[in-house]
Amino acid sequence: MALVVLFLAALWAGVQNALAGGGSFVTLPALMFTGMDARAANITSTIALFPAQIATALTGRTLVTGAAGVSFGALVIISLVGGALGALLLLVTPASFFARLVPWLVLFATLVFAWGSFAPKRASRAHLSRYAAMTAQFGIAIYGGYFGGGIGFLMLAALTAAGLLMRNAAATKNALAGVMNASAVLIFIFSPEVRWLQAGIASAGAITGGILGGLLLHKLNERVLRVIIVLIGIVLTIGLFIRAR
Fold it and tell me: CB of 112 within 8 A of CB of 54?
């Protein structure tokens, strides 16, 4: 029964990521529901969602670009290094400490998602310098390799502040998210905490959901979906704080 719930949750996560993002909010508790601790669930979730991320990145590859005078290739290197550091940091974090940290990470990611979804949008002008843009991406990549929730909106904020149009920022964000998770996945696959059966089931669900999400992209009210995502984040945060007590 738990594995059926996991597949359905990953299916929804795939749809959610394709339409708005925040799919890890769904897969994390679903994986924990199958019996694993928070750190193992986070590691397994990163691996499970990675193939769908790559497919999304390839879809918008023609819009990908650099920012603030930093080439896309340089951003890729920064994301790879930062993602690897974040993944290594997660592996050396005690499971008990990470379990206490997760509610705060989910709360932070939910706030970031809500801000990115509903804060007033202003015309973007280049505010970040070359080195500020590189530093911001490096910090986001470390966070992405460690936890990952909310990285899309963190990158959107940084890339638009560096002067990119929203369409280019979104495509570049998708590509860089896949890159930073690639370095994390290359490290995580050697971890004994990966639950490969659950990862396979979740990956199949996420890929299927990603395809469905792509087909539904122009048919659903995105604002309503984002409200649902924020509500999921709030419920998950409350549940995790209760569980951590």
Answer: no
Per the model's pLDDT, the better-predicted residue between 18 and 77 turns out to be 77
**Number of CB atoms found within 10 A of residue 54's CB:** 18
DSSP for 108-173, please give it: HHHHHHHHHHHSPP------S-HHHHHHHHHHHHHHHHHT-TTHHHHHHHHHHHTT--HHHHHHHH
Over residues 146-195, the pLDDT tens digits come to 887 767 777 877 887 787 876 787 778 878 888 888 888 888 888 888 88
Q: In Å, what is the CA distance from 186 to each residue of 35, 44, 74, 149? A: 24, 12, 20, 19
Residues with Cβ < 8 Å from 144, sequence gap 6 or more? Answer: 79, 82, 83, 86, 151, 177, 180, 181, 184
The position carrying tokens 């890159």 is 179
Phi, psi angles (nearest 5°) of residue 220: -105, 150
CA distance 33 to 154: 28
Hey, which residues does 67 pair with through a beta bridge?
70
**Confidence grade of residue 100 (pLDDT, cut at 50, 70, 90):** confident
pTM: 0.73
Hey, is 15 helix, strand or coil? helix
d(CA 208, CA 170): 22
Q: Quote the domain boundaries for residue 145.
A: 2-244
Structurally, how many domains does the chain consist of? 1
> Going by C-beta distance under 8 Å and a sequence separation of 6 or more, which residues neighbour residue 159?
67, 168, 169, 172, 173
Percentage of the chain modeled with pLDDT above 70? 82
